[in-house]
Amino acid sequence: MISVGLTGSVASGKSEVSRAWQRAGVPVVSADELARIAVEPGSAGLDAVVDALGSDILKEDGSLDRARVRSIVFRDDDARRCLEDIIHPIVRRHWETWVQAQQAEGADLIVSEIPLLFESGRAEDFDCVVVVDAPYDTRLSRMIEFRGLSEDEARRVMTAQMDANEKRQLADILIRNEGTLEQLDEKAGSVLEELRSRFVGRRMKIDMHIHTLGSWDSLSDPERVLEVAMERGFQRVAITDHNRVHVGLRMAECYPDVVIPGEEVKTAEGIDVIGLYLCEEIPEGTPAEETIELIRSQGGIVYLPHPYAAGKGG
After folding, report:
1. Is residue 309 part of a domain?
2. Given this model, what pLDDT does residue 234 score?
3. CA atoms of 18 and 31, how far apart (whole Å)
């Protein structure tokens, strides 16, 4: 599954790109929406925010007065950092739950719209980061016209974020929003095609070295091992028990599109050699060169699992 981060400066048009991708069938999650969930009435997140900023940030119905919070945090850097320290961990937990659900449903491409992606150090969480950019004056006008902010308030919000030029430099893909809404939607469609052609179907998450109860050092049930691997987003697993291949062969027969049968052979020299795609067991104690030839004669792939680990025969 390919995970794409979508970000950009405030009022750059990233939400419109997000909506365009949703219309195209891509699962999209919004950090802003998760942040709203994090401070719903009665939540621990809202209680923490009230403790930090005071009860006057609440409306009469007990919900968060966002305009009041905004007026505080964009005038006070310490208050803003305090708020982020409360909200960001909660948002991340909600996000991780969402990602796991998409993996379970078999999504091949997902998008996370996160306004403060770079500011919160989240870039490494994604296979690709797309930045939507628009001219400063255009963004300022949008915030005044569409969000009802004063010019001073809009400038404070914009100043609190990372400089737009820095975001452009950090982008894997940049979408310049300098025209009409229709033109932006067209650019969004082109970038989505690029993402699918560049990433989807070209990467696979594989665990190349798993032991099960077929090994002397493991009690793991192979069916459960496979189940957990799938839950964690692996598309393939190689069962490479010590000096045994029977479990790998049985599992590969049951799950031919998922399981790679293999064996970790302890050679005569004490070296661990793994063979993948085996159909016959190679006896423990076979010399290393002969082990390699036997793997290759079966059409298998040879690799050393831990060549530099002390005590592992590397």
Report:
1. no
2. 87
3. 12
